[in-house]
Specification:
Layout lengths: L2 H6 L3 E2 L2 H11 L8 H23 L12 E6 L4 E6 L6 H9 L6 H9 L3 H10 L11 E9 L6 E6 L4 E7 L8 E8 L9 H12 L6 E4 L7 E4 L14 H12 L7 E7 L5 E7 L15 E6 L2 E4 L13 E6 L8 H6 L1 H24 L1 H15 L1 H5 L4 H7 L1 E4 L7 E2 H6 L8 E5 L3 H5 L5 H5 L4 E4 L4 H4 L5 E2 L2 E5 L25 H14 L5 E4 L8 E4 L7 H9 L10 E4 L4 H8 L5 H18 L7 H16 L5
Helix pairs in contact: 3-7, 10-11, 18-20, 18-21, 21-22
Bound molecules: adenosine-5'-diphosphate (ADP) and magnesium ion.
The site of adenosine-5'-diphosphate has 14 residues, from helix 3 and helix 4.
């Protein structure tokens, strides 16, 4: 080794996120340390699968060692555990990249949540996120990685004690595997059980029995390897031969999730295209669910050879699904880029999406509670499909579940909603906002409540988008209760208090005109409302254009220059309104204050601030003072 290389080998700091993750691992409160083995075996299997793929184009990479394998070796005396594969291997840069940074998406979200959590919750979180290679530091106080890339004459040694730095240096070929990677764990005193064959075999059986590469174990230095997992691909087996636990283990190893799958879709498509799909809907939200890239995680295999994880086999709105597709028809000797263009792949994708949606429909029908859990976790993602996938819009609307004014706790389907339509009701009404509780207090709902009309309470940001598409369900359009005229006069009130909007007396009409003149440019219009029964005022959006919630979202995202002027609706039968309307010309100042205050009240009810906080507080003070010591007294 020359001097330059030696100095390069000196401690490099880990990337900040890695350092945080390592700290978590070393001081792990996570009791289930067994998972480190699954992570290392899954990396070894990935490396074998990547080599198998590269060898399609370059068979010479395999040399005289064509069969992939993973070998676990124990040296109890030295307290050493070694996991070795004959896969693709890593060169120096790949080591620095792969073992010094975290490319895994969702890491940021994971670390943020970890930092905000404590104790038991923290342990659960660690369990949900596959922490990858670094989990080795839960059981080892030093990890050495020796690797020789396929087809290369060089080998490298990566080494770290997990305390913030690592080193990479050239290694002697004689010390390195002939091809692939050897991960050597110097096991901590308190983790000695991981140098016992019994423990290791149990963990492999429980966690990694279905990885598509055979695994053997070497009990002590010099002993012969014994096979403990045969590497048969689980998805090729008959459904009847696969137990729930097998599926769960496989799901965990392929998905990097540590929960139970909420739905398993395993099928063989025959006929025009032959392929096998094994898709899992996770039981909890993966950490990368809201990553900006919205990438899917379905792996593509061709005749059991792993091709790519980047083929986007399902639409984006199903990106929470995990699993694989194995095609019998796609040519093996085709590049990843070419595969993407293949019409065959298009057909498979279509079939796969239909299958997954079909299974969700079945579950919704047969086990509504199990489906509700899936909806709870992934509904906000599925709804993206309502505007992205025209072809499946109706199916997705039928799968959608809502909180409503009649059912704020249990989820309601649109099918249930339309069954409860009131006489003369021609639309499905909704109110969009941040949270169900706030929405329920909204004055806009009063007229609907008085008529027993159910209103959907939409609280996901995505809701404001799909409702504006002109979509309909069962022939009924979606209509915002904060937009346009409410058209409620035709629907009879269930409390029998018939109060047609037309019968607004002249004094009140004059007062409305006065408010409009006073507010001037601040409002589009001021008008009598038939949507209010108890409150005095509310704001609504004009008939055309976006509803107020969507406008706020767009403006917040910088996609809309300004929010359009609202219409102030006034309840013409409200005691305060009629009293103000009766005030004479001598009370003009009070009426002006009242006009502004009514407008500010409507804004506050929407979660906004008064138009002009200073002026608001002055007006409020004047009016309060008057009520404490009435004018003239
Ligand atoms: N046995 C191995 N052979 C080849 N590359 C490996 C091996 N183990 C780890 N790596 C590299 O290190 C990276 C990080 O591994 P890991 O932390 O488990 O994350 P992930 O497997 O999700 O990418 C891998 O993506 C891979 O590039
Ligand atoms: Mg990994």
């Amino acid at each position: 080794m020359n001097v330059a290389e030696e100095s390069r080998a000196e401690g490099r700091p880990f990337e900040a996120d890695v350092a945080k993750l390592l700290h978590l691992m070393v001081h792990s409160v996570y009791s289930d340390k067994d998972v480190f083995l699954r992570e290392l075996i899954s990396n070894a299997a990935d490396a074998c699968e990547r080599l198998r793929y590269e060898a399609l184009a370059t068979p010479s990479l395999l040399e005289d060692d064509p069969n992939p394998r993973i070998v676990i070796s124990i040296d109890a005396d030295q307290r050493r555990l070694t996991i070795e594969d004959n896969g693709i291997g890593m060169n120096r840069d790949e080591m620095i990249e792969g073992l010094g940074t975290i490319a895994r998406s969702g890491t940021k979200a994971f670390l943020d949540r970890i930092e905000a959590s404590q104790g038991a919750e923290r342990a659960t979180l660690i369990g949900q996120f596959g922490v990858g290679f670094y989990s080795a530091f839960m059981v080892a106080d030093r990890v050495d990685v020796l690797s020789r890339p396929a087809g290369s004459g060089e080998a490298w040694l990566w080494s770290s004690d997990g305390q913030g730095t690592f080193s990479v240096s050239p290694a002697d070929l004689a010390d390195a595997p002939r091809r692939g990677t050897r991960v050597i764990l110097h096991i901590k005193e308190d983790s000695k059980t991981y140098t016992e064959r019994f423990t290791l075999e149990r963990i492999v059986r429980e966690q990694s029995g279905h990885v598509p590469v055979p695994i053997s174990i070497v009990e002590k230095p010099g002993a012969a390897p014994a096979e403990i997992a045969d590497g048969a691909a689980l998805w090729t087996k008959a459904k009847a031969d696969i137990g729930t636990a097998d599926y769960t283990d496989f799901y965990r190893s392929i998905a990097g999730q540590f929960d139970e799958p909420a739905l398993i879709v395993h099928f063989r498509a025959e006929g025009r295209h032959e392929y096998t799909g094994l898709i899992f809907i996770p039981g909890s939200r993966p950490f990368d669910l809201f990553d900006a890239d919205r990438k899917g995680r379905i792996k593509l295999y061709v005749k059991r050879v792993f091709i790519t994880g980047e083929a986007e086999m399902l639409p984006r709105y199903l990106r929470f699904a995990r699993g694989l597709v194995d095609s019998a028809d796609l040519p093996l000797n085709i590049s990843r880029e070419m595969i993407q263009e293949s019409p065959l792949l298009g057909a498979i994708k279509k079939g796969l999406a239909s299958r997954v949606i079909g299974e969700l429909e079945k579950l919704a029908e047969k086990e509504p509670e199990a489906y509700a859990k899936i909806w709870e976790n992934f509904g906000s993602v599925l709804k993206e499909g309502i505007y992205e996938d025209l072809e499946r819009r109706d199916a997705l609307l039928a799968l959608s579940r809502f909180k409503t004014t009649s059912s704020a706790v249990a989820w309601r389907s649109l099918k249930e909603y339309v069954v409860g339509l009131k006489e003369n009701q021609t639309a499905i009404y909704y109110l969009a906002g941040d949270d169900v509780e706030r929405l329920q207090a909204s004055p806009h709902l009063e007229g609907f409540r008085a008529r027993g009309v159910e209103v959907l309470l939409l609280t996901d940001p995505v809701d404001s988008f799909w409702v504006t598409l002109g979509a309909s369900f069962d022939g009924k359009p979606f209509k915002s209760v904060t937009q346009g005229a409410a058209d409620l006069t035709l629907i009879p009130r269930s409390d029998a208090k018939q109060t047609p909007a037309a019968a607004v007396d002249a004094e009140v009409n004059d007062f409305l005109a006065f408010i409009k003149a006073t507010l001037g440019e601040e409002v589009e219009d001021v008008r009598a409302s038939d949507r209010l029964t108890d409150s005095a005022v509310c704001l609504v959006a004009p008939e055309s254009g976006p509803d107020r919630q969507l406008e706020k979202l767009l403006a917040g995202a910088g996609r809309l220059a300004s929010i359009s002027k609202p219409i102030l609706e006034v309840n013409p039968r409200h005691e305060l309104v009629t009293a103000l309307a009766r005030l004479g010309e001598g009370e003009r100042a009070l009426k002006e204050d009242a006009a502004h205050l009514l407008f500010d009240e409507a804004r506050v009810l929407e979660g906004e601030r008064p138009a002009n906080p200073r002026a608001f507080s002055d007006r409020l003070a004047r009016v309060l003072r008057r009520s404490v010591s009435p004018a003239g007294s």
